[in-house]
Every structure is written in C-alpha cells, then in structure tokens.
Write a structure and sequence with these properties.
The complex is a heterodimer of chains A (231) and B (792). Chain A is 34% helix and 28% strand. Helix content of chain B is 50%, strand content 18%. In chain B, helix 3 packs across helix 8, helix 9 runs parallel beside helix 12 and helix 14 runs antiparallel to helix 21. Chain B starts with a helix and ends with a helix. The chains are: A alpha/beta (231), B alpha+beta (792). At the A-B interface, helix 2 and helix 3 of A face helix 1, helix 10 and helix 13 of B.
Chain lengths: 231, 792
C-alpha cells in the first residue's frame, strides 16, 4: 500500500543542512497497524506528515496505492484525502464552530455523499462510539477523550483505507487513552483499516502489529510484534 | 454544504459579537451612505429622461460671440423666428415647440387665487413629453388659444378635485381660460416644470414680443424632436446654414445649434461653444464619495477577517485534511461575507428610512426608496453582491491559500510580515480618505465664508422686493406715495429685474472712441425708475442718482465702474453712450455690486430710466417700525391695489443666501460623509486594537509581572496604530492641498488654503484615533495579570 524509498527531508539555513529524515525506506501493507516511535525531534511527525502528503520530502520516492505521490497536484491530493486517508490529531482539531454531528458530517459533504447516506453513516458512527447524546454539543463542551472520539469518528466517516494518527492520546488521561487504542485495534482488526500512529508511549505501541523506531531521522529498528489482545 | 456554511456563518457572527457589530454597523453605514448618494445620483442622472423618446429631444442653444472669434457664452434661449424656420426647412425635425422660460403668474378659481408656475408652449410640446393625461385629449388640448392644461395638484389646489375638465379659470385677473386637460404632476427632476400650461397662441395675444417674428429677442426656448435616425452633426450644420441664410450676418450674430435637452442639466457648462461638463462633476464627486465610504467599510471587514486569520487558519487546515478544496473554502468565506452584507443592508435600509427626511431637507430634494420598483431592488442587490465580494474576496483568497500543515503547527507567522503590512496599507488608505474629506470640508466652509464676508456692495438688510403684478404696473407712482405716506418704507423703486438677477445681457451698445466697428462684450442692463441708488444704497463713485429735477434724465445713464473701464472714459460724467441706436449720457458711476454669481466678477452694467419696463419693486424698510408692522402695512396696501393677487414679499437677504446653495450642499455633504468616514475608520481601528489586545493578553500578563506600568503597555499597544495615522496624515495633506487648490481655481473670487487647516485636520483625526485606541489599550493594560496568565 505504501512504498517509501530513500526518503530524505532537510531544512537548510545559512547553507547548513539540518536533516530531519535520512534514507527512510520502508513499505507498509494494507491492514497493518504501525506505530512510529522515537525520542522528541527524531522526525516521527515529519515522517507521518510525509505519509499524509502534508509535507513533501526533499528527496526520495513515495508511492501510495501504487501511485507516485511525491509530486501530486492539490486536486488529486484532496481526492486522496476524501477517499483514502483519515487524520487524527493530538489536539483533536475539531472545528469549534460546528457541532459534533456537523464535524462528522463535514468530510461527507466535501465527498458529496447524498444526504440519506450521510445521515445513516453518521448515525452509525455516533452509535458505535456511544456519543449519540452528544451530537448537538460543540467541541468545547466535551472532555478531551470525547473530543478525540469525535475526531476519530470524523476520520472514519469517509470510510478511509488508512488512518494517520499523530499522538492521538498525547493529551488524554490513561483510561481514555486506553479506550482510544482499543478502538484503533478494533478498527484495524474488524474493518481492516490500515493504521499508522506516532506515539511516545511504549504501551500504545503494543496495540499495533509493527513498530518503527526512529532516532535522528534514521529508522533504527523495524520490528513486528504480537499485538496484545484487547479485553 | 451551503446550508451548513450559512449556519456556521451565522454562528460565527453571533459568537464574535464585537467584530460582528463593528462589521455590520460599519458596512451598514457604508451601504446606507452609498445607497443614499446613489439614489441622489440617479435622481440627477435621470433628469429630463422620463419621456419615451427623450433621446431625440433637443433644445436650441445660442452661442454668444466674444472677443477675437471666441464664443463668450452659450445659453438655451432662442428667438421667435427660429422655430418656424426649422419647421419649414429642416426635414429631420419631427416636432418643434416654442415656449417661454416660464414664470409665476396668477391663476384663480373665483376668489381662490394663487401664484403658480406658468408656461406657454406650442402644441407639439405634448408630443415631446409624454404628459400623462388624467382628463382631456392631448391632441386638441392646446388648439384653442383660451385653453389651459393644469397639473393634478394645481387642479386640487384650485378646485379641490382633479375632475375639472371644461371648467374655467381666470389668468392674471384678466382672461378666462377653459381647462382642456389635467395631467399628472411633473416629476421633480425635469427642467421644464409648470403648474399650468397655456397655448403659445394665447401668448401671442397677450404679449407682442411673442407674436413678433424676430432674430433679436432671445427670451424664448425652442424645443425640437428629431427623427431617431437623424445625424445631429449634419442637422446642426443645416441649422447653422439655414439661420445664416435667413438673417443678415454681423459680428454680433449669434449662431444656434441643437443640444440634447436631457444633457443640459448635467452637462450645461460651455466653454467656447463646446460642452465641458457642468454639474456632472459634482455627480462624479458624489459617486466617488459613495463608493469611498463603502470601501472604507469593506476594508474594515477585510482587516477584521485577516486579523482573525490565525484562528481561522486552523479551521482551514483541518478542512483541507478532511477533503475540502480551495474553491469550497473560498465559497465558504464568501458566504460568510455575503451573510454579513445582507444583515448590514437590512440595517442600512432602516438607517436610510431614518435619515432620508433629514437628508432631503438638507439638500432640499425629495428622494425615497421605491420598494415596489424592481430596478431599485436589482440595484440594491447588485451593491450587496459587489460589497460582499469586495469585502470577502481578500480574506477568502488569503485564508484559503494556507498550507494545512503550517496552520496546524501554528507556523503562519512566517508570512506575518507581509500580512501586517497589507493591513497597515489598508488602514492608512482609510484614514487618508477621511483626512482628505475633513480638509475638503474645512476649505469649502472657508470659501463660503470668504464669499459671504465679501461685501455685496450695498446694505442687503431691510431691503425687500415684491413682484410688480397687475395694478402695480400701471399705478406704481400712486402705490409708491401711499407706501411712503404709511411710513413703512424709506424709499422704493421699480426695475425690470431684481437686484439679484441673472441674464438680461446685451451687446447693442457703442461708445466714443471704440476701436472695433461693433461691440463684442456682453453688457447687462437694468431699466428702473427714480430713487434707484437712494433705495438700494449701492455706492456711487461719481455723479448722482436719477432725479425728477432733471428732465433730461430720460436719456441719462448710470453705469458700473467696470463699464467705465470698458468705455475707457477718463471723466465719464456727461459722456455719450449709444444704446440700441439711441444716445444716452452718463450721469453717475456706481461701484460694481454682486448680482449674478458671487464667485466671479460680473458683466459691466448700465442702468437707465424706463418706467415701462416693469418687473420688480424694491423697497428699503423703515427701521423705525418693527419689521412685522412694516410687512403688514405693505401687504395691506398692496392688497388694496391688487385684491386678486397674494402679496409675496421677499427679503433680498435670502436671495443672496440662495446663491451659496450649491457650494453649501457640497459643504454639507463632505462634512457629513467626512464624519461618517472618520467614524467607520475609527470603528475598524477599534476592532483591530481589540483583536490585537486579545491576542497579546498573555504577553501583557507576563510584561506586567515583570514590572511594566499601565502607561508602558498602553504605549506598546497604541504606538503601531498611531504610527499608521501619522503616515496617513503625511500622505493625505499634500493630496488634499492639491485637490482643493484645483477646486478653488474654479472660482474667480477665492480664498487661500490657510495653513492652520492642516494641523486642525491632523490633530482632530489623531485625537479621534488616540481616543479609540487608548480606550481599548487601557482596558487591556489595567486587567489583572493573573487572569491573563491563567488563560490558555
């Protein structure tokens, strides 16, 4: 599904190159649950952003679903966002002016899904995440964990094939964090959604099937793990 | 999608109350001012364009030759002979109607008598203007000489009803006329307005000058309707040739040409026989003013929107990652600005309804919004859409271009420098406009004051005039002695024209030692009776007033100082001047006084004795009595002489006030809209400061903890804004100095732009801005640092 070859990313200031990523080569298959780990400033988030096409690598090739996307135009990229990629952010990034319902609805509107289909998908998501009662509330009326649930529901609304999550539990208490990770695992197992997450916490990584350890922009280690079983 | 956008737009409006309020009120004021000015512009623009074929209606203009083959002046008068000549020899002319300029005359139904605007015209007038007949037949209405067409309101005033066909009214207490038509009142924005219209054939009966076909008396108007396919240039060449062939050509011959009648109102200024604009310049000024104010309000909107961009950019970033493309974001931001503009226009219409009566009375016009007129709605909607687009376009394109990852990482400050500077440019632009308007107001005001303070040449106080109607023409001497006996007046005279007149120019004058065979300078003439100078108090430089003691005064002449200059006489008293082929001798020279335009020096003037040329009676009131009793006495005595006529006493004072009207209007408008511009600009400034304060709450908290005083913080927050105003002042001052100097150049008598105007405008603007900014700055600086630091 994802093929990275020799990805490099650096910023040059005053003629000196500051490498963020060096020689990153890896491939991620459909249905994997990958955790990217490493110390602060290792380049985890940059790698995730490149995977999400939010940043362009300075060098190297990136194929998404067999298509070279390093030099994709905006229209095609948005097409991918609409159909294949769902983002989950550490700071949730819900739209403050929209209710829970509208936040989940937004990607469907951009995807131009018909209203009946929209209503049923949202109802389904609200139901699945147990937030039906919250659907008319605004993000600032929810707890962090609830906001992140909405964020995930929004990411799932467009039925993506992959979810990119940047420290999804970074702002959450441990109980809530666990809940989110279990949800991810469930999505991965039951719906076959590919999940790539950046995380600090060793515990979160154990929910996945593979861990990429990054330090100083280089992939140090790539290990498969046997995921712990959700309760 | 659209529905959601709309919902979110409304939510945003509601959530950010301060900025919404500033935006809505600013835009509403801008829109109200714009719509009000535009409705005035459309009122002026549609002058004389009500008739279906207004495009083909022309008026005969006359060029007055001047020095050295130049054309000294152009006016819309023509002779009685022109109309018939064109009718016979100009195939392109479909209809031709001669008329008089219109005057006020008495019309009565029994005892019910009024002085109303009357007009004489040939029957073709009804084909030129599509008067809407309520009763009567337009084909025959003006056929019988003793007929009259009334407007609906005249009929109602006289009879209490519009159903008055075939009834009779009495004209000037002399003739009974049969009402052959009642028409709807004429629109206010038409030049040839009247309250009742009488046939030209009747005019020929009562006035010999109308009957006499001549090429010398230019006191009439000739209207021509051409065939739609006529080439006006060709027609004008023909007119010129026809007139040339029909009259003997001299240096004083005045060539005619046809000019589109509807253009006369706005393009009525001629130089050397060519149209060089006219009131249209004022119209362009108003259009500029209208859109200037609207633009200021739009700039407020743009500034507020971009100031909030940091917050909005996060939203843009999120939306982009969930699949929004740029156009959908642009559409969303434009929806927001459209919603806002729509709210603003509703407020604006309410504002207009509130202010229009005052506006109307200020400008002395009668405007209203026609709610049942599709055109006005299309116009309003058009302005809303344009405003929404202008106000929303910059934020829409600017915000939608954000890169998602940068916005989510809050890294947009990289572009900050450029953003701030554009906002600064807009603010500077706003205040430039406002300062220019303030300076303009001050200069216009100074100019009016200058002209007002310029002596008119005589004591206007205690001078009144009444029209010389009915018996006052024949029994003038008796009337005079009665009034003098009553003690209400000190002295009085009759004259062909009022003291404050225009027109009555002529060229048929020669003097001794003339270098040219014929005179080409326009002179002004006044025919009067005894006590001319005694009454009006114009300064006599040499010689004496007309006097009964000198029988020879029937051929005596009073001339103005400028006339003496033209004659070139060293000792003018007793010198000979030839008027219309008759010799006259100068007995006195008076100082030039203001009679036509107070802004330029007037033509040389000659005054002669001729009791037959009646027109106006001018009186100097006796100050020993109260004004009221004087007026009552005059009315009472006039009523005895002229029972059928109402007495109209006009103060010369007010006639001179009238002369400043157009400049006063300009002054009022630039004052009003200058004030609005400042207000809206300050509103925008307030919004920006408020936002900047909100953003920097934390910084201020930290600074306070570190020991910054309230004054330090206020300075920190205010200085950058004050700087912009100072920049605006430096730009606006030279611009307005240049523009206003140009404006003043239009006047022969003009004031200089005083140096103190500039600091006054600058300090006033700066004060307003400082008050605006420091109000918010103080509030922020005073707040408790702990609150600020807890925040986040």
């Amino acid at each position: 599904m994802i093929e990275l070859k020799n990805i490099e990313k650096y910023y040059s200031s005053k003629g000196i190159k500051h490498y963020v990523l060096r020689h990153v080569t890896t491939s991620i298959k459909q249905g994997e649950f990958v955790s990217i780990m490493g110390p602060s400033g290792a380049g985890k988030s940059t790698l995730l952003n490149i995977l999400g096409m939010l940043e362009e690598p300075t060098y190297g090739t990136y194929e998404f679903l067999g298509e070279d996307v390093t030099t994709l135009n905006e229209r095609k990229r948005i097409e991918l966002y609409r159909n294949h990629i769902g983002f989950v952010f550490q700071a949730y990034h819900l739209i403050d002016e929209m209710t829970v319902y509208e936040n989940i609805e937004a990607p469907l509107l951009y995807k131009k899904v018909g209203s009946a289909e929209r209503a049923s998908r949202i109802a389904d998501l609200l139901d699945r995440f147990n937030i039906v009662a919250k659907k008319d509330l605004f993000p600032n009326q929810l707890s962090g964990g609830q906001q992140q649930l909405v964020g995930i529901a929004r990411a799932l609304a467009a039925q993506p094939s992959i979810i990119l999550a940047d420290e999804p539990t970074g702002n959450l208490q441990s109980a809530q964090a666990e809940e989110i990770m279990q949800l991810f695992q469930k999505l991965n197992k039951e719906d076959g959604i590919t999940i790539i997450q950046v995380t600090h916490a060793e515990k979160n990584a154990t929910y996945g099937s593979r861990i990429l350890h990054i330090a100083d922009g280089v992939v140090k280690d790539d290990v498969s793990v046997k995921p712990i079983q959700a309760v | 999608m659209f529905k959601l956008n709309l919902k979110i737009a409304l939510r945003n409006l509601w959530k950010n109350k301060t900025s919404s309020f500033i935006n809505v009120i600013g835009l509403a004021i801008g829109l109200a001012a714009c719509l009000m000015l535009l409705s005035y512009v459309s009122y002026e623009w549609n002058f004389d364009k009500q008739a279906k074929n207004w495009k083909n209606v022309y008026v005969a203009m006359t060029n007055v030759p001047g020095e050295g083959n130049k054309i000294a002046g152009t006016f819309n008068g023509s002779t009685t002979a022109l109309g018939p000549l064109l009718k016979q020899n100009l195939p392109e002319a479909k209809y031709i109607a001669r008329m008089d300029y219109g005057t006020k005359s008495l019309i009565a139904n029994g005892q019910n008598s009024y002085k109303k605007n009357s007009k004489f015209a040939e029957p073709d007038i009804l084909k030129l203007y599509d008067y809407e007949f309520i009763a009567g037949d337009p084909k025959t209405a003006l056929n019988n000489p003793l007929s009259v067409i009334l407007t609906e309101s005249t009929a109602r005033t006289l009879f209490g009803t519009a159903d008055v066909l075939n009834k009779s009214v009495r004209y000037q207490d002399k003739e009974n006329l049969t009402i052959t038509g009642v028409i709807k009142d004429l629109p206010e924005n038409s030049s040839n307005r009247f309250d009742f219209l009488m046939p030209w054939s009747f005019y020929e009966i009562i006035d010999d000058s109308a009957k006499d076909l001549n090429w010398t008396n230019y006191s009439f108007v000739t209207m021509v309707s051409l065939n739609p396919d006529a080439n006006i240039e060709l027609v004008n060449r023909k007119v010129k040739d026809l007139v040339k062939a029909a009259t003997p050509q001299t240096l004083q011959s005045q060539p005619h040409f046809l000019y589109q009648a509807s253009r006369l109102h706005l393009f009525g200024k001629f130089e050397n026989g060519k149209s060089v604009g006219g009131d249209i310049e004022q119209i362009w000024l108003f259009v500029g003013l209208a859109f200037g104010i609207l633009l200021i309000a739009c700039i407020n909107f743009m500034n507020m929107a971009t100031a909030k961009s940091e917050k909005r950019s996060k939203e843009v970033g999120i939306k982009k990652t969930i699949g929004a493309n740029r156009s959908s974001l642009i559409f969303q931001f434009l929806t927001e600005s459209m919603v806002l503009t729509l709210v603003a226009v509703v407020v604006a219409i309410a504002l207009i309804e509130l202010c229009l009566p005052a506006f109307n009375s200020l400008l002395n016009i009668n405007l209203g919004i026609s709610y049942f007129n599709t055109a006005s709605w299309v116009g309003i909607l058009g302005i809303v859409i344009v405003t929404g687009l202008i106000a929303g376009s910059y934020p829409a394109f600017y915000l939608s271009a954000f890169n998602p990852i940068q916005t989510l990482k809050r890294k947009i400050s990289a572009k900050g420098f450029l953003r701030i500077s554009l906002r600064q440019v807009l603010v500077v632009g706003q205040f430039c406009f406002a300062i220019i308007l303030i300076i303009a107001t001050l200069v216009i005001y100074r100019q009016i004051q200058y002209i007002k303070n310029k002596p008119v040449g005589f004591d206007v106080n205690a001078l009144v005039e009444i029209p010389q109607d009915g018996e006052l023409k024949t029994k003038f001497e008796l009337f005079k002695s009665e009034l003098l006996k009553s003690g209400a007046i000190k002295s009085m005279y009759q004259s062909s024209v009022s003291l404050s007149h225009h027109g009555r120019n002529f060229m048929d004058i020669t003097w001794d030692g003339m270098t040219k065979p014929e005179n080409t300078i326009l002179f002004n003439q006044v025919a009067t009776s005894y006590d001319f100078i005694k009454t009006n108090g114009i300064k006599l430089l040499e010689g004496r007033d007309f006097s009964k003691n000198f029988a020879s005064d029937t051929s005596a002449l009073l001339v103005s100082a400028s006339a003496v200059k033209v004659f070139g006489y060293k000792n003018p008293i007793g010198k000979r001047v030839n008027l219309y082929g008759t010799n006259a001798y100068i007995i006195g020279v008076f100082d030039d006084y203001v009679w036509d335009s107070p802004y330029k020096s007037n033509n040389p003037q000659v005054v002669f004795l001729n009791p037959k040329q009646t027109g106006t009676i001018t009186m100097r009131l006796n100050n020993a009595n109260s004004l009221q009793s004087n007026i009552e006495t005059i009315s009472r005595i006039a009523k005895v002489f002229n029972p059928a006529y109402p007495t109209e006493i006009t103060f010369i004072n007010s006639l001179y006030q009238e002369k400043y009207k157009s400049e006063k209007t300009l002054g009022i408008l630039s004052n009003l809209f200058g004030g609005l511009a400042i207000f809206v600009s300050c509103l925008g400034l307030f919004g920006l400061v408020a936002y900047s304060a909100e953003q920097r709450t934390k910084e201020f908290g930290v600074r306070k903890v570190l020991g910054a005083s309230v004054a330090d913080l206020m300075q920190l927050l205010s200085l950058s804004f004050i700087k912009m105003i100072v920049v605006a002042i430096f730009i606006a001052v030279p611009v307005s100095y240049f523009v206003m100097n140009k404006w003043l150049d239009n006047f022969e008598f003009r004031t200089e732009i005083s140096w103190w105007i500039i600091p006054i405008a600058a300090i006033a603007t700066l004060t307003m801005a400082v008050i605006t900014v420091s109000f918010q700055a103080y509030k922020t600086a005073k707040s408790n640092p702990v609150d600020a630091l807890k925040y986040e």
